Amino acid sequence: MIKITDLHFTYPGAAIATLNGVDLEILQGEFIAIIGNNGSGKSTLCKTLNGLIPNFIVGEGSGSVTYNGEDLWKMPIGEIANCIGYVYQDFENQIVCPTVSEDAAFSCLNYGHEDYVKKGLDALVLCDLLDKKDDYIWQLSGGQLHLLALAGALALAPDVLILDEPIAQLDPAHATQMYETLKELNEVHGKTIIVIEHHSEYIAEYCHNAILLHEGRVLWKKDARSALRECQQLIDCHIFPPQITVAAQQIQQKSGWKQDQLLPTTIAEGKKFFEKMGILPDFKVRQEVMNSQLAIQLSNIDVQYRSVKGESKSLFTNFNLKIFAGDKIALIGSNGAGKTTLMKLLVGLLKPKSGTIMLNGTDVTALRAEQIAAHISLVYQNPEQMLIKESVRADIEFAMKERDIANYKQQAQALITLFQLDAIAESDGRLLSGGQMRRASLAIGIALEPPILLLDEPTANLDIATRQEIIRTLDLLKDTIETVVIATHDMQLVCEFANRIIVLADGEVIGDGPREVIFNNQAVRRQAGIEPPAIYQMAEQLGGSAYTIAEFVQAYQKELCV
Protein backbone atom coordinates (compact mmCIF):
# COMPACT_ATOMS: atom_id res chain seq x y z
CA MET A 1 0.00 0.00 0.00
CA ILE A 2 2.66 2.52 1.11
CA LYS A 3 6.27 1.84 0.21
CA ILE A 4 9.17 4.07 1.25
CA THR A 5 12.58 3.50 -0.30
CA ASP A 6 15.88 5.12 0.75
CA LEU A 7 14.13 8.26 1.97
CA HIS A 8 16.31 11.21 3.04
CA PHE A 9 15.20 14.66 4.17
CA THR A 10 17.12 17.60 5.63
CA TYR A 11 15.52 20.83 6.86
CA PRO A 12 17.00 24.13 5.63
CA GLY A 13 20.04 25.09 7.67
CA ALA A 14 20.12 21.78 9.57
CA ALA A 15 23.56 20.24 10.07
CA ILE A 16 22.30 16.66 9.82
CA ALA A 17 19.46 14.90 8.01
CA THR A 18 16.23 14.26 9.93
CA LEU A 19 15.47 11.23 7.75
CA ASN A 20 18.53 9.27 6.77
CA GLY A 21 17.73 6.35 4.50
CA VAL A 22 14.27 5.18 5.57
CA ASP A 23 13.04 1.91 4.04
CA LEU A 24 9.54 0.86 5.06
CA GLU A 25 6.42 -0.88 3.80
CA ILE A 26 2.96 -0.40 5.33
CA LEU A 27 0.24 -2.83 4.30
CA GLN A 28 -3.48 -2.33 3.83
CA GLY A 29 -5.42 -2.78 7.09
CA GLU A 30 -2.47 -2.47 9.47
CA PHE A 31 -2.75 -0.70 12.82
CA ILE A 32 0.81 0.42 13.28
CA ALA A 33 2.68 2.51 15.84
CA ILE A 34 5.75 4.58 15.01
CA ILE A 35 7.95 4.87 18.08
CA GLY A 36 11.20 6.71 18.73
CA ASN A 37 12.78 9.41 20.85
CA ASN A 38 12.05 13.12 20.36
CA GLY A 39 13.89 14.26 17.25
CA SER A 40 14.13 10.77 15.72
CA GLY A 41 12.11 11.89 12.69
CA LYS A 42 8.66 10.45 13.46
CA SER A 43 6.60 13.53 12.57
CA THR A 44 8.82 14.31 9.59
CA LEU A 45 8.31 10.80 8.25
CA CYS A 46 4.54 11.09 8.52
CA LYS A 47 4.57 14.49 6.82
CA THR A 48 6.14 12.85 3.79
CA LEU A 49 3.03 10.69 3.59
CA ASN A 50 0.43 13.45 3.37
CA GLY A 51 2.18 15.85 1.01
CA LEU A 52 3.29 18.48 3.52
CA ILE A 53 6.78 17.42 2.54
CA PRO A 54 7.75 18.48 -0.11
CA ASN A 55 4.73 20.60 -1.13
CA PHE A 56 4.66 22.99 1.84
CA ILE A 57 7.75 22.21 3.94
CA VAL A 58 10.91 22.82 1.98
CA GLY A 59 14.20 21.03 2.39
CA GLU A 60 16.58 18.67 0.65
CA GLY A 61 14.95 15.32 -0.04
CA SER A 62 15.60 12.17 -2.02
CA GLY A 63 14.24 8.66 -2.29
CA SER A 64 10.74 7.52 -3.14
CA VAL A 65 7.34 7.31 -1.45
CA THR A 66 4.61 5.42 -3.29
CA TYR A 67 0.93 4.84 -2.53
CA ASN A 68 -0.59 1.85 -4.32
CA GLY A 69 2.29 2.07 -6.78
CA GLU A 70 1.86 5.79 -7.54
CA ASP A 71 4.55 8.35 -6.69
CA LEU A 72 3.06 10.14 -3.70
CA TRP A 73 5.28 13.20 -4.09
CA LYS A 74 3.91 13.78 -7.59
CA MET A 75 0.26 13.48 -6.59
CA PRO A 76 -1.74 16.73 -6.16
CA ILE A 77 -2.07 17.60 -2.48
CA GLY A 78 -5.87 17.53 -2.74
CA GLU A 79 -5.78 14.01 -4.13
CA ILE A 80 -3.54 12.85 -1.29
CA ALA A 81 -6.02 14.16 1.30
CA ASN A 82 -8.73 11.91 -0.16
CA CYS A 83 -6.48 8.89 0.35
CA ILE A 84 -4.51 9.72 3.49
CA GLY A 85 -6.04 11.65 6.40
CA TYR A 86 -3.83 13.32 8.99
CA VAL A 87 -4.55 14.50 12.54
CA TYR A 88 -1.70 16.70 13.71
CA GLN A 89 -0.02 16.84 17.08
CA ASP A 90 -1.36 20.40 17.39
CA PHE A 91 -4.80 19.31 16.25
CA GLU A 92 -6.49 22.60 17.26
CA ASN A 93 -5.02 24.16 14.10
CA GLN A 94 -7.17 21.83 11.99
CA ILE A 95 -10.43 23.11 13.47
CA VAL A 96 -11.56 26.10 11.43
CA CYS A 97 -15.36 26.44 11.71
CA PRO A 98 -17.48 27.73 14.60
CA THR A 99 -19.80 24.74 15.03
CA VAL A 100 -19.11 21.03 15.30
CA SER A 101 -21.20 19.99 12.28
CA GLU A 102 -19.73 22.72 10.08
CA ASP A 103 -16.19 21.75 10.97
CA ALA A 104 -16.76 18.04 10.37
CA ALA A 105 -18.20 18.80 6.93
CA PHE A 106 -15.73 21.50 5.95
CA SER A 107 -13.30 19.33 3.98
CA CYS A 108 -16.12 17.80 1.94
CA LEU A 109 -17.61 21.25 1.30
CA ASN A 110 -14.17 22.44 0.23
CA TYR A 111 -14.01 19.61 -2.29
CA GLY A 112 -17.47 20.45 -3.64
CA HIS A 113 -19.25 17.28 -2.52
CA GLU A 114 -23.00 17.80 -2.79
CA ASP A 115 -23.64 15.53 0.19
CA TYR A 116 -21.06 17.31 2.35
CA VAL A 117 -23.50 17.70 5.26
CA LYS A 118 -24.27 13.98 5.35
CA LYS A 119 -20.60 13.04 5.14
CA GLY A 120 -19.79 15.34 8.02
CA LEU A 121 -22.57 13.87 10.15
CA ASP A 122 -21.48 10.33 9.27
CA ALA A 123 -17.97 11.18 10.47
CA LEU A 124 -19.40 12.54 13.74
CA VAL A 125 -21.25 9.24 14.24
CA LEU A 126 -17.99 7.33 13.85
CA CYS A 127 -16.34 9.59 16.45
CA ASP A 128 -19.31 9.49 18.86
CA LEU A 129 -19.91 13.23 18.54
CA LEU A 130 -23.31 13.34 16.87
CA ASP A 131 -24.99 14.66 20.02
CA LYS A 132 -22.59 17.64 19.87
CA LYS A 133 -23.32 18.54 16.23
CA ASP A 134 -25.01 21.86 17.04
CA ASP A 135 -22.48 22.94 19.69
CA TYR A 136 -19.86 25.61 19.17
CA ILE A 137 -16.34 24.25 19.12
CA TRP A 138 -15.38 26.25 22.22
CA GLN A 139 -17.99 24.30 24.18
CA LEU A 140 -16.08 21.05 23.65
CA SER A 141 -13.52 19.53 25.97
CA GLY A 142 -9.98 18.87 24.79
CA GLY A 143 -10.78 15.22 24.16
CA GLN A 144 -13.86 16.09 22.13
CA LEU A 145 -11.88 18.61 20.07
CA HIS A 146 -9.35 15.89 19.29
CA LEU A 147 -12.14 13.60 18.13
CA LEU A 148 -13.57 16.44 16.03
CA ALA A 149 -10.21 16.85 14.27
CA LEU A 150 -10.36 13.12 13.55
CA ALA A 151 -13.92 13.47 12.23
CA GLY A 152 -12.80 16.24 9.88
CA ALA A 153 -10.16 13.92 8.42
CA LEU A 154 -12.59 10.98 8.27
CA ALA A 155 -15.27 12.88 6.36
CA LEU A 156 -13.31 12.46 3.10
CA ALA A 157 -13.30 8.67 3.70
CA PRO A 158 -9.52 8.17 3.32
CA ASP A 159 -8.14 4.65 3.36
CA VAL A 160 -5.26 5.66 5.64
CA LEU A 161 -5.39 7.70 8.86
CA ILE A 162 -2.26 9.13 10.46
CA LEU A 163 -2.43 10.52 14.01
CA ASP A 164 0.52 12.30 15.60
CA GLU A 165 0.41 11.75 19.39
CA PRO A 166 -3.37 11.11 19.48
CA ILE A 167 -3.67 10.98 23.28
CA ALA A 168 -0.86 13.26 24.47
CA GLN A 169 -3.21 15.76 26.13
CA LEU A 170 -6.15 13.50 26.89
CA ASP A 171 -7.33 12.15 30.23
CA PRO A 172 -7.33 8.34 30.54
CA ALA A 173 -11.05 8.01 29.79
CA HIS A 174 -10.83 10.09 26.60
CA ALA A 175 -7.57 8.36 25.63
CA THR A 176 -9.30 4.99 25.78
CA GLN A 177 -12.24 6.42 23.83
CA MET A 178 -9.86 7.65 21.12
CA TYR A 179 -8.22 4.25 20.76
CA GLU A 180 -11.54 2.40 20.83
CA THR A 181 -12.65 4.67 17.96
CA LEU A 182 -9.46 3.90 16.04
CA LYS A 183 -9.92 0.18 16.70
CA GLU A 184 -13.44 0.29 15.25
CA LEU A 185 -12.24 2.24 12.21
CA ASN A 186 -9.56 -0.38 11.66
CA GLU A 187 -11.51 -3.57 12.33
CA VAL A 188 -14.99 -2.62 11.13
CA HIS A 189 -14.31 -0.04 8.42
CA GLY A 190 -10.98 -1.39 7.16
CA LYS A 191 -8.95 1.78 7.69
CA THR A 192 -5.18 1.57 7.85
CA ILE A 193 -4.15 3.35 11.06
CA ILE A 194 -0.72 4.88 11.70
CA VAL A 195 -0.06 6.48 15.10
CA ILE A 196 2.98 8.22 16.52
CA GLU A 197 2.84 7.14 20.13
CA HIS A 198 4.85 7.31 23.37
CA HIS A 199 2.33 5.37 25.50
CA SER A 200 3.46 1.76 25.19
CA GLU A 201 0.50 0.34 27.14
CA TYR A 202 -1.86 1.54 24.40
CA ILE A 203 0.45 0.12 21.73
CA ALA A 204 0.32 -3.26 23.46
CA GLU A 205 -3.47 -3.17 23.73
CA TYR A 206 -4.43 -1.86 20.29
CA CYS A 207 -1.66 -1.92 17.68
CA HIS A 208 -0.73 -4.81 15.39
CA ASN A 209 2.82 -3.75 14.63
CA ALA A 210 5.42 -1.20 15.73
CA ILE A 211 8.22 0.57 13.89
CA LEU A 212 11.30 1.76 15.78
CA LEU A 213 12.77 4.94 14.31
CA HIS A 214 16.16 6.10 15.56
CA GLU A 215 18.38 8.88 14.18
CA GLY A 216 16.28 9.04 11.04
CA ARG A 217 16.46 5.32 10.27
CA VAL A 218 14.03 2.43 10.72
CA LEU A 219 15.78 -0.07 13.00
CA TRP A 220 13.00 -2.63 12.75
CA LYS A 221 9.34 -3.38 12.21
CA LYS A 222 7.87 -6.06 14.49
CA ASP A 223 4.54 -7.20 15.82
CA ALA A 224 3.59 -4.90 18.70
CA ARG A 225 3.94 -7.39 21.57
CA SER A 226 7.37 -8.60 20.40
CA ALA A 227 8.49 -5.02 19.89
CA LEU A 228 7.56 -4.02 23.42
CA ARG A 229 9.52 -6.93 24.89
CA GLU A 230 12.74 -5.39 23.54
CA CYS A 231 13.10 -3.57 26.85
CA GLN A 232 16.76 -2.63 26.79
CA GLN A 233 16.76 -1.47 23.19
CA LEU A 234 13.66 0.64 23.78
CA ILE A 235 15.20 2.21 26.89
CA ASP A 236 18.43 2.87 24.99
CA CYS A 237 16.32 4.70 22.40
CA HIS A 238 14.56 6.68 25.18
CA ILE A 239 11.23 4.90 24.82
CA PHE A 240 9.05 3.60 27.65
CA PRO A 241 8.50 -0.15 27.54
CA PRO A 242 5.30 -1.17 29.37
CA GLN A 243 5.77 -0.93 33.13
CA ILE A 244 4.66 -4.53 33.58
CA THR A 245 7.22 -5.75 31.05
CA VAL A 246 10.07 -3.90 32.77
CA ALA A 247 9.02 -5.14 36.22
CA ALA A 248 8.82 -8.76 35.03
CA GLN A 249 12.23 -8.54 33.38
CA GLN A 250 13.85 -7.02 36.48
CA ILE A 251 12.35 -9.68 38.75
CA GLN A 252 13.52 -12.42 36.40
CA GLN A 253 17.04 -11.01 36.28
CA LYS A 254 17.34 -10.56 40.05
CA SER A 255 15.84 -13.91 40.98
CA GLY A 256 17.41 -16.04 38.30
CA TRP A 257 13.96 -17.60 37.90
CA LYS A 258 12.97 -18.54 34.36
CA GLN A 259 9.76 -19.72 32.81
CA ASP A 260 8.60 -20.57 29.32
CA GLN A 261 6.18 -17.64 29.24
CA LEU A 262 7.10 -14.55 27.26
CA LEU A 263 7.49 -11.31 29.18
CA PRO A 264 4.03 -9.80 29.74
CA THR A 265 3.00 -6.57 28.00
CA THR A 266 -0.56 -6.20 29.34
CA ILE A 267 -2.21 -6.53 32.76
CA ALA A 268 -3.93 -9.76 31.73
CA GLU A 269 -0.63 -11.29 30.64
CA GLY A 270 1.05 -9.95 33.78
CA LYS A 271 -1.45 -11.61 36.10
CA LYS A 272 -0.71 -15.02 34.58
CA PHE A 273 3.03 -14.36 34.61
CA PHE A 274 3.35 -13.29 38.25
CA GLU A 275 0.90 -15.87 39.58
CA LYS A 276 2.89 -18.62 37.87
CA MET A 277 5.98 -17.51 39.82
CA GLY A 278 4.34 -18.82 42.98
CA ILE A 279 5.80 -15.98 45.06
CA LEU A 280 3.63 -13.96 47.43
CA PRO A 281 4.68 -10.29 47.08
CA ASP A 282 5.02 -8.15 50.19
CA PHE A 283 3.61 -4.75 49.26
CA LYS A 284 4.43 -1.89 51.63
CA VAL A 285 2.18 1.13 52.21
CA ARG A 286 4.16 4.36 52.36
CA GLN A 287 2.73 7.14 54.50
CA GLU A 288 2.71 10.58 52.91
CA VAL A 289 3.73 13.62 54.96
CA MET A 290 1.26 16.48 54.51
CA ASN A 291 2.36 20.12 54.83
CA SER A 292 0.77 22.75 57.08
CA GLN A 293 2.20 26.20 56.17
CA LEU A 294 -0.39 27.96 54.01
CA ALA A 295 0.89 29.41 50.71
CA ILE A 296 -2.28 30.02 48.65
CA GLN A 297 -5.91 30.16 49.69
CA LEU A 298 -8.86 30.48 47.32
CA SER A 299 -12.11 31.41 49.06
CA ASN A 300 -15.63 31.41 47.61
CA ILE A 301 -14.40 31.76 44.02
CA ASP A 302 -16.94 32.17 41.23
CA VAL A 303 -15.77 32.04 37.61
CA GLN A 304 -17.96 32.51 34.56
CA TYR A 305 -17.21 32.33 30.86
CA ARG A 306 -19.17 34.40 28.40
CA SER A 307 -21.02 32.35 25.85
CA VAL A 308 -22.04 33.31 22.34
CA LYS A 309 -24.81 30.77 22.60
CA GLY A 310 -27.08 31.02 25.64
CA GLU A 311 -26.20 32.19 29.11
CA SER A 312 -22.72 32.54 30.54
CA LYS A 313 -21.21 29.29 31.73
CA SER A 314 -20.21 28.94 35.39
CA LEU A 315 -17.16 26.78 35.86
CA PHE A 316 -16.33 27.47 39.52
CA THR A 317 -19.09 28.27 42.01
CA ASN A 318 -18.20 28.98 45.65
CA PHE A 319 -14.88 27.20 45.04
CA ASN A 320 -12.44 26.81 47.95
CA LEU A 321 -8.92 25.41 48.02
CA LYS A 322 -5.76 25.61 50.13
CA ILE A 323 -2.24 25.01 48.82
CA PHE A 324 0.54 24.60 51.37
CA ALA A 325 4.22 25.52 51.13
CA GLY A 326 6.23 22.52 50.03
CA ASP A 327 3.28 20.77 48.40
CA LYS A 328 4.01 18.67 45.32
CA ILE A 329 0.51 18.57 43.91
CA ALA A 330 -0.84 16.59 40.98
CA LEU A 331 -3.99 18.28 39.69
CA ILE A 332 -5.98 15.68 37.79
CA GLY A 333 -9.39 15.27 36.23
CA SER A 334 -11.03 14.84 32.85
CA ASN A 335 -10.63 17.34 30.01
CA GLY A 336 -12.77 20.37 30.82
CA ALA A 337 -12.77 19.77 34.59
CA GLY A 338 -11.20 23.18 35.32
CA LYS A 339 -7.48 22.42 35.76
CA THR A 340 -6.17 25.04 33.34
CA THR A 341 -8.75 27.58 34.55
CA LEU A 342 -7.53 27.13 38.13
CA MET A 343 -3.93 27.74 37.06
CA LYS A 344 -4.89 30.89 35.16
CA LEU A 345 -6.63 32.16 38.28
CA LEU A 346 -3.52 31.59 40.37
CA VAL A 347 -1.28 33.65 38.06
CA GLY A 348 -3.78 36.44 37.42
CA LEU A 349 -4.51 35.66 33.77
CA LEU A 350 -8.14 35.14 34.72
CA LYS A 351 -10.11 37.11 37.29
CA PRO A 352 -12.94 35.63 39.36
CA LYS A 353 -16.40 37.18 39.30
CA SER A 354 -16.30 37.02 43.10
CA GLY A 355 -14.16 35.58 45.90
CA THR A 356 -10.59 36.13 47.03
CA ILE A 357 -7.14 34.70 46.28
CA MET A 358 -4.59 35.05 49.07
CA LEU A 359 -0.86 34.56 48.39
CA ASN A 360 1.27 34.21 51.53
CA GLY A 361 -1.38 36.15 53.44
CA THR A 362 -1.72 38.96 50.86
CA ASP A 363 -4.85 39.47 48.75
CA VAL A 364 -3.72 39.26 45.10
CA THR A 365 -7.17 38.92 43.54
CA ALA A 366 -7.01 42.27 41.76
CA LEU A 367 -3.29 42.27 40.90
CA ARG A 368 -2.15 42.10 37.30
CA ALA A 369 -0.40 38.98 36.03
CA GLU A 370 2.97 40.75 35.78
CA GLN A 371 2.73 41.72 39.45
CA ILE A 372 2.31 38.07 40.43
CA ALA A 373 4.91 36.65 38.01
CA ALA A 374 7.84 36.93 40.43
CA HIS A 375 5.96 34.75 42.95
CA ILE A 376 4.11 32.26 40.73
CA SER A 377 5.10 31.09 37.25
CA LEU A 378 2.97 29.11 34.81
CA VAL A 379 4.36 26.87 32.08
CA TYR A 380 1.56 26.61 29.52
CA GLN A 381 -0.05 23.46 28.20
CA ASN A 382 0.82 24.55 24.64
CA PRO A 383 4.53 25.46 24.86
CA GLU A 384 4.55 27.39 21.60
CA GLN A 385 2.56 30.12 23.40
CA MET A 386 5.70 30.89 25.44
CA LEU A 387 7.99 31.11 22.41
CA ILE A 388 7.75 34.64 21.03
CA LYS A 389 11.30 35.66 20.18
CA GLU A 390 13.66 34.83 17.32
CA SER A 391 15.55 32.19 19.30
CA VAL A 392 15.26 29.92 22.33
CA ARG A 393 18.01 31.90 24.04
CA ALA A 394 16.15 35.19 23.54
CA ASP A 395 12.95 33.65 24.92
CA ILE A 396 14.72 32.45 28.08
CA GLU A 397 16.46 35.81 28.54
CA PHE A 398 13.33 37.89 27.96
CA ALA A 399 11.70 38.02 31.42
CA MET A 400 15.03 38.46 33.22
CA LYS A 401 16.09 41.22 30.84
CA GLU A 402 12.77 43.06 31.28
CA ARG A 403 13.30 43.01 35.06
CA ASP A 404 16.86 44.34 34.77
CA ILE A 405 18.51 41.26 36.27
CA ALA A 406 22.21 42.06 35.99
CA ASN A 407 23.56 38.62 35.08
CA TYR A 408 20.61 37.47 32.98
CA LYS A 409 22.81 36.21 30.13
CA GLN A 410 24.76 33.91 32.45
CA GLN A 411 21.57 32.67 34.11
CA ALA A 412 20.00 32.01 30.70
CA GLN A 413 23.06 30.00 29.61
CA ALA A 414 22.90 27.96 32.82
CA LEU A 415 19.26 27.09 32.06
CA ILE A 416 20.10 26.26 28.44
CA THR A 417 22.73 23.81 29.65
CA LEU A 418 20.49 22.40 32.39
CA PHE A 419 17.72 21.59 29.91
CA GLN A 420 20.13 20.36 27.22
CA LEU A 421 19.17 23.14 24.81
CA ASP A 422 22.69 24.16 23.69
CA ALA A 423 22.34 22.64 20.23
CA ILE A 424 19.11 24.54 19.52
CA ALA A 425 19.68 27.70 21.59
CA GLU A 426 19.90 29.93 18.51
CA SER A 427 16.95 28.27 16.72
CA ASP A 428 13.45 29.69 16.52
CA GLY A 429 11.61 27.82 19.27
CA ARG A 430 8.40 27.69 17.26
CA LEU A 431 10.10 25.44 14.70
CA LEU A 432 11.27 22.83 17.20
CA SER A 433 9.82 19.40 17.89
CA GLY A 434 7.13 19.06 20.55
CA GLY A 435 9.57 17.64 23.09
CA GLN A 436 12.15 20.36 22.45
CA MET A 437 9.50 23.06 22.88
CA ARG A 438 8.51 21.48 26.21
CA ARG A 439 12.05 21.72 27.52
CA ALA A 440 12.41 25.30 26.31
CA SER A 441 9.11 26.38 27.88
CA LEU A 442 10.11 24.89 31.23
CA ALA A 443 13.39 26.81 31.14
CA ILE A 444 11.42 30.01 30.46
CA GLY A 445 9.03 29.24 33.31
CA ILE A 446 11.74 28.92 35.95
CA ALA A 447 13.94 31.76 34.67
CA LEU A 448 12.73 34.09 37.47
CA GLU A 449 13.13 31.34 40.10
CA PRO A 450 9.57 31.69 41.42
CA PRO A 451 8.84 29.99 44.76
CA ILE A 452 5.65 28.52 43.27
CA LEU A 453 5.68 26.81 39.88
CA LEU A 454 2.60 25.70 37.93
CA LEU A 455 3.03 23.20 35.11
CA ASP A 456 0.21 22.44 32.68
CA GLU A 457 0.79 19.00 31.08
CA PRO A 458 4.60 19.22 31.27
CA THR A 459 5.32 15.70 30.01
CA ALA A 460 2.94 15.56 27.03
CA ASN A 461 4.71 14.49 23.80
CA LEU A 462 7.98 13.67 25.61
CA ASP A 463 10.18 10.62 25.26
CA ILE A 464 11.48 8.79 28.33
CA ALA A 465 14.80 10.65 28.51
CA THR A 466 13.30 14.14 28.29
CA ARG A 467 10.50 13.26 30.71
CA GLN A 468 12.91 11.87 33.30
CA GLU A 469 15.18 14.87 32.84
CA ILE A 470 12.28 17.21 33.66
CA ILE A 471 11.47 15.23 36.81
CA ARG A 472 15.14 15.28 37.86
CA THR A 473 15.31 19.00 37.17
CA LEU A 474 12.29 19.66 39.36
CA ASP A 475 14.01 17.71 42.12
CA LEU A 476 17.19 19.77 41.66
CA LEU A 477 15.14 22.98 41.93
CA LYS A 478 13.40 22.03 45.17
CA ASP A 479 15.56 24.42 47.20
CA THR A 480 14.56 27.33 44.95
CA ILE A 481 11.03 26.41 43.89
CA GLU A 482 9.25 25.46 47.06
CA THR A 483 5.80 24.51 45.81
CA VAL A 484 4.88 22.80 42.53
CA VAL A 485 1.44 22.16 41.07
CA ILE A 486 1.26 19.97 37.98
CA ALA A 487 -1.91 19.57 35.95
CA THR A 488 -1.49 16.27 34.20
CA HIS A 489 -3.08 13.17 32.70
CA ASP A 490 0.22 11.31 33.09
CA MET A 491 -0.52 8.91 35.93
CA GLN A 492 3.07 7.67 36.02
CA LEU A 493 4.16 11.24 36.72
CA VAL A 494 1.50 11.51 39.43
CA CYS A 495 2.85 8.42 41.15
CA GLU A 496 6.51 9.38 40.84
CA PHE A 497 6.20 13.05 41.82
CA ALA A 498 3.17 13.99 43.88
CA ASN A 499 2.67 13.87 47.64
CA ARG A 500 -0.86 15.22 47.24
CA ILE A 501 -3.50 14.68 44.56
CA ILE A 502 -6.37 17.09 43.91
CA VAL A 503 -9.13 15.72 41.68
CA LEU A 504 -11.40 18.12 39.79
CA ALA A 505 -14.69 17.29 38.10
CA ASP A 506 -16.98 19.94 36.59
CA GLY A 507 -15.27 22.70 38.56
CA GLU A 508 -15.48 20.97 41.93
CA VAL A 509 -12.89 19.23 44.11
CA ILE A 510 -14.12 15.66 44.42
CA GLY A 511 -10.93 14.24 45.90
CA ASP A 512 -8.00 15.68 47.84
CA GLY A 513 -5.35 13.67 49.62
CA PRO A 514 -2.30 11.41 49.26
CA ARG A 515 -2.07 8.82 46.49
CA GLU A 516 -3.28 5.93 48.60
CA VAL A 517 -6.50 7.73 49.49
CA ILE A 518 -7.30 8.86 45.94
CA PHE A 519 -6.48 5.65 44.08
CA ASN A 520 -8.40 3.55 46.60
CA ASN A 521 -11.53 5.66 46.13
CA GLN A 522 -13.38 3.83 43.36
CA ALA A 523 -16.18 6.41 43.21
CA VAL A 524 -13.70 9.24 42.55
CA ARG A 525 -11.86 7.13 39.98
CA ARG A 526 -15.08 6.46 38.08
CA GLN A 527 -16.40 10.02 38.24
CA ALA A 528 -13.14 11.65 37.09
CA GLY A 529 -12.17 8.95 34.59
CA ILE A 530 -8.94 8.22 36.47
CA GLU A 531 -6.98 5.21 35.32
CA PRO A 532 -3.95 4.55 37.55
CA PRO A 533 -0.73 3.46 35.82
CA ALA A 534 -0.39 -0.13 34.73
CA ILE A 535 2.00 -1.07 37.53
CA TYR A 536 -0.53 0.08 40.16
CA GLN A 537 -3.30 -1.89 38.44
CA MET A 538 -1.01 -4.91 38.29
CA ALA A 539 -0.37 -4.68 42.03
CA GLU A 540 -4.13 -4.34 42.61
CA GLN A 541 -4.68 -7.59 40.72
CA LEU A 542 -2.17 -9.26 43.06
CA GLY A 543 -3.80 -7.89 46.21
CA GLY A 544 -1.54 -4.96 47.05
CA SER A 545 -0.45 -1.51 45.92
CA ALA A 546 2.68 -0.18 44.23
CA TYR A 547 3.04 3.18 42.52
CA THR A 548 6.30 2.66 40.67
CA ILE A 549 8.24 -0.18 39.08
CA ALA A 550 10.82 0.04 41.87
CA GLU A 551 8.14 -0.40 44.57
CA PHE A 552 6.64 -3.35 42.68
CA VAL A 553 9.99 -5.11 42.35
CA GLN A 554 10.78 -4.34 46.00
CA ALA A 555 7.67 -6.32 46.98
CA TYR A 556 9.45 -9.46 45.69
CA GLN A 557 12.77 -8.54 47.31
CA LYS A 558 12.73 -11.27 49.98
CA GLU A 559 12.57 -13.92 47.29
CA LEU A 560 15.12 -12.38 44.93
CA CYS A 561 18.73 -13.44 44.70
CA VAL A 562 20.82 -10.33 45.41
Describe the structure.
With 562 residues, the chain is an alpha/beta fold. Helix content is 36%, strand content 22%. A hairpin with a 2-residue loop joins strand 19 (500-505) and strand 20 (508-513). Helix 4 (100-110) packs parallel to helix 6 (142-154), helix 5 (116-126) crosses helix 6 (142-154) and helix 15 packs parallel to helix 17 (434-445). The longest helix has 16 residues, at 172-187. The protein is globular, with a radius of gyration of 24 Å. The mean pLDDT is 89.
Kindly estimate the percentage of residues that lie in beta strands according to DSSP: 15-25%
Question: What's the quaternary structure here?
Answer: single chain
Strand arrangement, major sheet: 6-7-8-3-9-10
Unreliable spans are none
Helical stretch count?
A: 23
Layout of helices and strands:
Blueprint: E1 2-10, E2 19-26, E3 31-35, H1 42-47, H2 52-55, E4 60-67, E5 70-71, H3 77-83, E6 84-87, H4 100-110, H5 116-126, H6 142-154, E7 160-164, H7 172-187, E8 192-196, H8 200-206, E9 209-214, E10 217-223, H9 224-228, H10 231-236, H11 243-255, H12 267-277, E11 294-305, E12 313-324, E13 328-332, H13 339-347, E14 354-359, E15 362-363, H14 369-372, E16 376-379, H15 392-402, H16 408-418, H17 434-445, E17 452-456, H18 464-476, E18 483-487, H19 491-497, E19 500-505, E20 508-513, H20 515-519, H21 522-528, H22 534-541, H23 549-554
Parallel strand pairs: 3-8, 3-9, 6-7, 7-8, 13-18, 13-19, 16-17, 17-18
Antiparallel strand pairs: 1-2, 1-4, 4-5, 9-10, 11-12, 11-14, 14-15, 19-20
